[in-house]
Amino acid sequence: MRFMIIRKADKATEAGTLPDEKLLAAMGAYNEEMVKAGVMLQGEGLQPSAKGARVKFTNGKPTITDGPFTETKELIAGFTLIQVKSRQEALEWLKRWPALDGGGNVELELRQVFEDEDFGSEFTPELREQEARMRRELAARKA
């Protein structure tokens, strides 16, 4: 099972405040622990929403709005993608998040990633092969 750990944005991340050496070391140790356990697939921090944009489609037509976005409760500051055996195991990893982050006041969200089998018969053999081909291409680019 794959899960995404979403680190919610706060005033500091939206202000572009970079983590200090202690937090970088703590996050590095946490990430290294997940890598050694074989559960971490990817993880990245995100730039503040001031450097982003939103695209909203209305009747198929896009409207672009440049950041910053005011509602920080709905913004993401970073993510980690993990692969574990259960939701409970994923939650155990979340509970070990470095307490230094956000001065001990940080909000994380856990979301399960869809797998091919979740889509049932609508995900035809042709669509499955297309998906597999794209994944192989992406993997080859990383290599």
Automatic annotation (TrEMBL):
Domain YCII-related: 1-104
Gene3D superfamilies, alphabetized: Dimeric alpha+beta barrel
InterPro entries noted in UniProt: Dimeric_a/b-barrel, YCII
Protein's name according to its UniProt entry: YciI family protein
Pfam family, one: YCII
Family: Belongs to the YciI family.
